[in-house]
Predict the structure.
Amino acid sequence: MESPTAIAAALTRRRERVAAAWALDDTVVLVGAGEPVPIPGGADQTYPFISHSEYFWLADMECPGAVVAFDPASGWVDFVPEVTEAERVWEGRRDAPGTPRSQLADWLAARRGRDVVVLGSPIEGQAPSARAAELRETMMHVRRPKDAVELGRMRRANAASAAGYGVAQRMIAAGVTERAIQIELEAEFLRAGGDCTAYGTIVGTGPDSAVLHFSPGARVVKPGDAVLIDAGAQVQRYASDVTRTYQAPGGDRGFFRDLYQVVLGVEQRAVARCTPGTEWREVHLRAAIELTAGLVDLGLLRGEPLDLVDRDVHALFFPHGLGHLVGLGVRDAGGYLPGRVRSERPGLKNLRTDLPLEPGYTITVEPGIYFIPPLLRDPDRRAEFKDAVNWARVDEHLEFGGIRIEDNVHVTDGAPEVLTAAIPTALS
Ligand code: GLY
Ligand code: MN
Ligand code: MN
């Protein structure tokens, strides 16, 4: 775990960097942590509180009601709510370091007439400002390269994930349920130092492995099933987001292996392309072309891979983007560069981020090939891609499910660093 001095130094540096990037003259900024959200119909219960990621990045605290304020003339102030007796008694809350939140009104009164921009969560009594989108975009850009504290947490999250995957892989056999795999995987994440899971664990077996965000259920693994696990531990708000696909012993091995080798080759080449200056959209499109070439080689598609990708044929089998920024949460400061708009093309509409990579960025690389019945049984698509898809061959595999391989990659000045390298991808 990092020392308090290291965290304090990182926060100072983050604040300096974002203040320099904003280059404000008269405008002041408030960044809200947010308030607990009541569970509808849940009487006095709230959802577990997490500070808004913009606040957390600046303050490194889970502190409901807190606000970080910035005035370019006088600097940063941390306003924290006074802890009530009930909070001390029921939740064990302690005083957070900072200035009492009750003094925020006076701080603002002393700056009356100046533009106030609210970032993070909304703050009661503060109207939205027209400049918020611009300042948020600037902050997102500053947040993208990870500092040593952030990378340290991601490494610990990934170590916990690796322990969990080790346990899960050893369990895979006919007769085990998706739920049983989830339970042991998540328990090991926690035993190995994770605070919680970074997102809802996906364990999809057989046909369930083709549901992109599947919630594990009672299905029992059958011999030869694809077993797709997409899960990650989280440490101090920093996420790991990993997918591995295994094959249960028994059954037909050839088709799984062939598809797996295609996905793995595409994944490894895409990881190698994660270098500074590379446009993420290009990494995605190259991966789409290579996946398509693999499907042509396997006799599932017909034609020139480039033409097929231009027609979005690949999106029948690879309907999502190649990855997303990961770090402070499973979806970190991604998005599109200002001026870039999301394409509506089936092969690009799910691209979560469109920007050039820079040193320090941490991004997932997660190609997949899936047999998704709602897409592959659709009569309109069958008609449109009559020539391009070997439908008879596809129909043999409609129950196969899918294969995805996902790693977390740290872009550096040199070769990309695979933060999830300890979780094996090679077929045994
Ligand atoms: N874990 C969900 C995703 O990879 O996007
Ligand atoms: Mn994932
Ligand atoms: Mn992901």
